[in-house]
Amino acid sequence: MSTAMNFGSKTFKPRPPDKGSFPLDHFGECKDFKEKFMKCLRDNSFDNSLCRLQSKDYLECRMNHQLMAREPLEKLGFKDLMDPPPGQADRDTKP
């Protein structure tokens, strides 16, 4: 009776995580945005709901520098901070 297992029948292909793990900012391209966000958190007893604009700016910087996958900001929870499309603001204010 053989107790050896045959692992050769399957091959493992590593793939990056879908979300939640991002490359480090080795060149400090988004350091200023990160520092503003962290200062906001410290100044507001780490209540992140008060630092959403800084969080949005930081994530935009990371996406612009390919430090995370590009996602629509609406999907990241910032729909209320987005500018309306051109012409939409005019329609919203007319009776």
Automatic annotation (TrEMBL):
Chain segments carrying region Disordered: 1-21, 76-95
GO-annotated cellular components: mitochondrial intermembrane space
Family: Belongs to the COX19 family.
Biological processes annotated in GO: mitochondrial respiratory chain complex IV assembly
UniProt KW keywords: Cytoplasm, Disulfide bond
Gene: COX19
PANTHER family per record: CYTOCHROME C OXIDASE ASSEMBLY PROTEIN COX19
Protein name listed in UniProt: Cytochrome c oxidase assembly protein COX19
InterPro entries, sorted: CHCH, COX19, Cys_alpha_HP_mot_SF
All residue ranges annotated as the CHCH domain in the record: 30-64
Compartments (UniProt record): Cytoplasm
Organism of derivation: Lates calcarifer
